[in-house]
Design goal:
This protein is mainly α. The chain contains nine helices and no strands. Helix 1 crosses helix 4, helix 7 crosses helix 8 and helix 8 runs antiparallel to helix 9. The longest helix has 26 residues.
């Protein structure tokens, strides 16, 4: 893909993530294209259907979240990096909730995508937790899959209007439970 086409795609996926998080899966495609600084034709050339845009946004947001783990460890101690990643996870899930109905259809037809996503998220979380175990800040007996399930519960709260502050407090409690 040409560099300019890749930039357009990246901007479209970022704009779609914002729109889906705030407006749901029925967010205006014209507004997404405008927010990305491209024409609606560019959006449709890359993503001929709303479902394709939703799936691509989901994949992109998952990759961005998982790819962030090593960078967070480069810039902060392991426990702080883990907590920052948890905040990003809550934001990621807000985007996912915004496109829940349409995404459900995608995940039902592609069960492998759902399992691959879970594995990617668990691996990113395990990377952060292993660093915390190595530096003595995170308990060694905690399973990353259990933490992922706990994060999923927190995101149910965070998805409610005006509950982001509560979600932050719950993330702090989760962190307290896994600290060494």
């Amino acid at each position: 893909m040409r560099a300019d086409a890749r930039m357009n795609q990246d901007r479209l996926l970022e704009a779609a993530a914002r729109a889906f998080a705030h407006e749901g899966a029925e967010g205006s495609l014209k507004a997404i294209a405008k927010d990305a600084g491209v024409g609606i034709g560019t959006l449709y050339r890359r993503f001929p259907t709303r479902e394709r845009l939703i799936e691509a946004t989901y994949r992109n947001e998952t990759a961005r979240l998982c790819d962030a783990a090593p960078g967070l460890l480069d810039t902060a101690p392991a426990a702080e990096a883990l907590r920052a990643w948890m905040d990003r996870f809550v934001d990621y899930m807000a985007t996912k909730h915004g496109m829940a109905d349409a995404l459900h259809a995608v995940l039902v037809t592609d069960g492998e995508l759902r399992m691959k996503t879970r594995d990617l998220l668990t691996d990113a979380l395990a990377t952060l937790m292993k660093a915390g175990v190595a530096d003595g800040t995170i308990r060694a007996d905690v399973d990353p899959e259990d933490v992922l399930m706990g994060l999923g519960g927190v995101t149910l709260i965070a998805g409610q209007p005006d509950q982001r502050a509560l979600a932050g407090r719950l993330l702090d409690l989760l962190m307290d439970g896994i600290r060494a």
